[in-house]
Design a protein that fits this description.
- The complex is a heterodimer of chains A (about 110) and B (about 110).
- Chain A is built from no helices and 11 strands.
- With about 110 residues, chain A is mainly β.
- In chain A, strand 4 and strand 5 form a beta hairpin.
- Helices cover about 0% and strands about 55% of the residues of chain B.
- In chain B, the strands form 2 sheets. In chain B, strands 2, 4, 5, 9, 10 and 11 form a 6-stranded mixed sheet that branches. In chain B, strands 1-3-8-7-6 form a 5-stranded antiparallel sheet, with no helix packed on it.
- In chain B, a hairpin with a 5-residue loop joins strand 9 and strand 10.
- Chain B is globular, with a radius of gyration of 13 Å.
- Chain B starts with a strand and ends with a strand.
- The chains are: A mainly beta (about 110), B mainly beta (about 110).
Chain lengths: ~110, ~110
């Protein structure tokens, strides 16, 4: 049973470009969460999704950031017009319905130059 | 007050030592509690869930005190491989499975 998959593992973007981060949850998991970790800081919740629904996006910046978890395919975290401050590790986690334990993917390290 | 607070650390202990981490949470409606460990530049990994009755897994013991809104993790006979950042995690009661992570406490076990 493969774990949570994230790609790419490393992503370099110039200021103003778009970044797309992908997350495939563990088999049987229908809940996906995105977190951001700035260097030397803790994890910050961004968004919680179930298939085709955003359940909680209270941690998402109001502009430039969006997330989706379509019926088919991975969850996508999209950052438009990236700025240097977006440089961070972005972790995805998944959990099955009714289970509160979350399992994390290896993360995508975004560097904005 | 932050939702989840932890000992600031870092903790530097010799191999074989016993070390305890403390964590407090502000929302009394929180239902689920966990300890995760995170190695440098890696993803967090679930160490153990924390139950009201307390639970033990080998050298690791977790305790929960709901009245004081306090969680602890005890590591006995620490190993070099225990060196990591330990994250206290509490679920947010508002949306069921939304986690709030503490800032983490870094542990270095020295030979």
């Amino acid at each position: 049973n493969a774990g949570v998959m994230q790609n790419p593992r490393h992503l370099v973007r110039r200021r103003g470009q778009e970044a797309r981060l992908r997350c495939s949850p563990m088999k049987g998991h229908s809940h996906v969460y995105w977190y951001r970790q700035l260097p030397e800081e803790g994890l910050k919740f961004m968004v919680y999704l179930q298939k085709e629904n955003i359940i909680d996006e209270s941690g998402m910046p109001k502009e430039r950031f969006s997330a989706e978890f379509p019926k088919e395919g991975p969850s996508i975290l999209r950052i438009q017009q990236v700025v240097r401050g977006d440089s961070a590790a972005y972790f995805c986690a998944s959990s099955p319905p009714g289970d509160h334990e979350q399992y994390f993917g290896p993360g995508t390290r975004l560097t904005v130059t | 007050r932050k939702e989840v607070e932890q000992d600031p650390g870092p903790f530097n202990v010799p191999e074989g030592a016993t070390v305890a981490f403390n964590c407090t949470y502000s929302n009394s409606a929180s239902q689920s509690f966990f300890w995760y460990r995170q190695d440098c530049r890696k993803e967090p990994k679930l160490l153990m869930s924390v139950y009201s009755s307390g639970n033990e897994d080998g050298r690791f013991t977790a305790q929960l005190n709901r009245a004081s809104q306090y969680i602890s993790l005890l590591i006995r006979d620490s190993k070099l491989s225990d060196s990591a950042t330990y994250l206290c995690v509490v679920n947010s009661p508002y949306y069921g499975q939304n986690f709030v992570f503490g800032p983490g406490t870094r542990l270095s076990v020295l030979p």
